[in-house]
Write a structure and sequence with these properties.
Glutaredoxin, 5 helices, two-stranded antiparallel ribbon, 6 strands, alpha+beta
Length: 164
C-alpha cells in the first residue's frame, strides 16, 4: 500500500544541523536511510560506515542522521558541537538534522511517521537505542527497520539497498 499524500515522508521539512532547511521532497526518487544518532554512544563509530555507504551509493541513497539525546544522554552537545565532532572525526558530508527527540511525548513528527503504522502505512516500531535505521524506498515507502546493532555496511543493509 502506498502512503497517501497526506502522510508522505516527502511532506517533511526539518531544520538542519547548521540552520539550513532539509526538505524531504528533494529526495523523491532516491532511497533514504534515516538514523537517530549520538556522539557518545558505543555505536558512534557507525558514522564512518554511514559516510562510506553515502559515498558508495551517492546516486541512489541519501543518509540523513538525526542527533538525539533521548538514550542515555549520549548527545549532550549543541548543534555546533555535533557538527564539529561529526566532520572532524568521521568526515560526515550527508545531511544531518538539528537535535530532535525521537521518543516520548515531544517526539518529532518525522519520528512519529517512522514509528507509526497509521502514518507510514507499513509498520509500527519502537526505537531501541541510538543508531536505529529506517530504510525508505524511492517512492517514499518504509522498507525496513534495522536495529542499532546492524552495521550500516553489513550484508543485510547492502542486500536491501541492492534488491529494492
Amino acid at each position: 500500500m502506498k502512503a497517501t499524500n497526506k502522510h508522505s515522508i516527502y511532506n517533511f521539512t526539518i531544520k538542519g544541523l547548521k540552520g539550513d532547511e532539509i526538505d524531504f521532497s528533494q529526495f523523491k526518487g532516491k532511497k533514504l536511510l534515516i538514523v537517530n544518532t549520538a556522539s557518545e554512544c558505543g555505536f558512534t563509530p557507525q558514522y564512518q560506515q554511514l559516510q562510506e555507504l553515502y559515498e558508495y551509493f551517492h546516486n541512489e541513497l541519501v543518509v540523513i542522521c538525526c542527533p538525539s539525546n533521548d538514550f542515555g544522554n549520549q548527545e549532550p552537545g549543541d548543534e555546533s558541537d555535533i557538527a564539529t565532532f561529526c566532520e572532524n572525526h568521521y568526515g560526515v558530508t550527508f545531511p544531518m538534522t538539528k537535535k530532535i527527540q525521537v521518543k516520548g511525548s515531544n517526539k518529532h513528527p518525522l519520528y512519529q511517521w517512522l514509528t507509526n503504522k497509521e502514518l507510514n502505512q507499513q509498520q509500527d516500531s519502537d526505537i531501541q537505542w541510538n543508531f536505529q535505521k529506517y530504510l525508505i524506498d524511492e517512492e517514499g515507502q518504509l522498507l525496513e527497520v534495522l536495529p542499532p546493532s546492524v552495521d550500516p555496511v553489513s550484508e543485510e543493509v547492502i542486500n536491501v539497498l541492492q534488491e529494492s
